[in-house]
Every structure is written in structure tokens, then in C-alpha cells.
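Protocol step 4 of 5: obtain the predicted structure for the target chain.
Materials: sequence only (see below). No template structures provided, no constraints applied. The aim of this step is simply to have a reference model before the mutagenesis design in step 5. Sequence pasted as it appears in the construct record:
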Amino acid sequence: MTQSPQPPFPLGKAILDQAAALARFSDMEGGLTCAYLTPAHRAAQARLAEWMEAAGMQVRIDAIGNVIGRYAADPAVGEAARVLMTGSHFDTVRNGGRYDGRLGILLPVAVVGALNAAGIRLPYHFDVVGFAEEEGLRFKTSFLASSVLAGRFDPALLDRTDTDGVTLREALAASGLPGAGSIEALQAAAVDPATLHGFVEVHIEQGPVLLHHGLPLGVVTQIAGSSRFQVRVQGLASHAGTTPMTMRKDAAAAAAEMVLLVERRCAEVPTLVGTVGQLQVPNGSSNVIPAECVFSMDIRAGEDGIREAAIADIVAGIHAIAARRGLVAEVERVPPVNNAPCARWLMDQFGAVLKKRGLQAYELPSGAGHDAMMMQRITDVAMLFVRCGNAGISHNPLETITADDAQQAAEAFVDFLRHFQPRA
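Step 4 output (C-alpha cells):
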């Protein structure tokens, strides 16, 4: 490897400035929403590709829309070079924050640009992936993009529809992406695990733990498994003024009881969490008893067995509530993502870098899902958390980090890359 001085800094403010610039591509006015394959999403995709190229990377966009930049290995390594991969997603939740996911793309690209400017090459290929879809906002398909890269794509997802009735298959066909959504192209986009050293992801914590301990960075131990559901409750529409309370089949009232069931059951175990983040009465009117109510359900735990036991109780309880009230409940489950432990040999290398820089090698679990969960199915993974401000608020416009913390993360990542030791 070419020995050169450390690359020029600072990068922290530049990373935050790019996050602000990328946030201008939004599906909504006055906030940040970037759903899969919308015009805003395609604009963000193109801008990431431009920034990767400017940093000195070879860039391609694959069949699902991932933006993949490669910082080629030192030529002295030759054809034997394997790949260390990093990255995160650039889609967002509705009215989300500008750093969730995107920090894990912008920071490595900025680091590559600095390494390239300093003439530093690494003894391995370094790939930065901007995953096109992780949040599932449009098609309710979590980890769609990383599942393609990991060779775990489910073809049945092509028939999923968005709120306008457009299928994923149709959206891909109209996207201009390679293969236009063909199964063959999506399967061909999978990476060969034998070519990988591993996958590492930089991400804001999305919680208050590092902030509470006064630490800028932390090393993730494991990523909690998650299961998501769409629950549809069918009742009977009737007049709000003429139908006695004892004769109603109120879908919204039943849904309210189900939501409280989720809260009550998930409060029984400290590592278990349950969230109903969406609740709707389709075509509802103020003077009509709701005939239908639809709500989302997100259940997570550090241990898969704990999560599955809670799900079984909650689903049984939902059907029991519906039966008692004379309604029908349909529970549709998105394929779950199991708990993903981080690899100790990668964690220790992040920890050594933090200690070298005079920081505590603080370890903590992640309760949020990440693309690293899908990549962990084919290779070893690790994550570096960056402190989240504003009491740890995330998935919200108030989500924030400081330029100083981004700077520390960039410097730590440079050290990690330059001293990375592949697993024997």
C-alpha cells in the first residue's frame, strides 16, 4: 500500500452540507420524503453517482437501483484483491430526517475523496453502496435493495402495489434501470460472497444512548430482529346517530383495542418493543361508524424467540378482539428479518481505532433495522454508530448530528480502512 500522509481534513462540515443538499430532493414540500423510484428518489440517486465519480470511484447502478461506487485497490495487489463493502440507504420514511441511512453513504464517499486526493490506495477494493430502498415506504418491502445485493430477493414482491395500484414490477419496468425488473437481472445483481472481506456500516444511532453517555461514537454488538405487519379490520358502516352502542361493528374502536394490546404485550419484556405507526380509516366520515380500519404493526426484540412469542400472542389477541366484536381481522406479515449479530473480529478493529483516538470503545445494540442485517446473511458485518442529537430523535425532521461528530467518525473510519486486517 502506498504510504502517504493522512488525507486532508476537515470533512465533517462537508458531509453535513451534502446531506442538506441531498435533502432538497423530496416528494413533499417543506420536509423530506424520498420514496422508492419517485422523481425525487431518482434525482438523489443521480446526485450520489455524481459525488462518487467526483471522489474517484468507478460507479454503476444495478437492477434494483443501488448506486455502487468502487475505489479500486492498489494496482500492486492485482487481480487477487477482494472487496470490503460499506453503505446504507438513501430512501426515507415519510417526513424523515436527513442523516438516517444517508450518513453511511456520504461519509465513506467523502473519505474516499480524501484518500484519493492524498494518493492513498488500499490493498483491497472498497465498495460504497447507496442502497435504493430500505424503509419500505412505497411498497411495504423492507430491505428490498439489500436483499437483491445479498441474493435473497423474493420474486413474489414484484406483485406488491403502492397506494396508486402500481406494482413493483410496473415501477421497475418504467424505471430505465438495467433489466427493467426482470427476474434474471435482479438475480444477476447479487454479489458473490466469496469476493467479500465483509460489510461495515456507519449510521447515526437513532437513539439517546451515546448522547446520554457523552460519547461521539459507539460500536454495535447486534441488530434487533424485526417483524412488520399490515392489519385490516372489517366492520360495518352505519349511521353515527341512529345505531345504538351495543349494536355497532366499529372497525376503528376494535383497532384501538388492538393497538393497546400491542402496547401492553410488548411492555412485558424489557428488550421487546411494539409500534403502531400508521392508523387509517379509509373513506371515513365524522358521522359514519367506520366500516374499515387499517394499521401497521412493527415488533422488534434482540432475541428472535422473544419476538416470535409476542407476535403469536398479539395475532391471537387481534383475532379474539375481532370475533368478540363481530368483525373480521386480516393480518398480513412482511417477511421478518431475524436478529443479526455483528462479527467480533470487525467490532474489535473499530474498538481499537476508537481507543487509539482516545475514545471509549463503547458497545451497544441497535434496536433499529439496517441494511447490514441483510448483508449479514452472506458475510460478516459490523456497524459504527454516530451520536444523534436532540434527545436521539430520528425518523423525524428534528434528527441531527454535529459537524464535530461527523468529523470524528470520518477520521475513525479512515483509520479503520488504512489498518484493516482481513480475517485469516
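Step 4 remarks: The chain has two domains: 12-224+339-418, 225-337. The chain has a mean pLDDT of 94.
Proceed to step 5.
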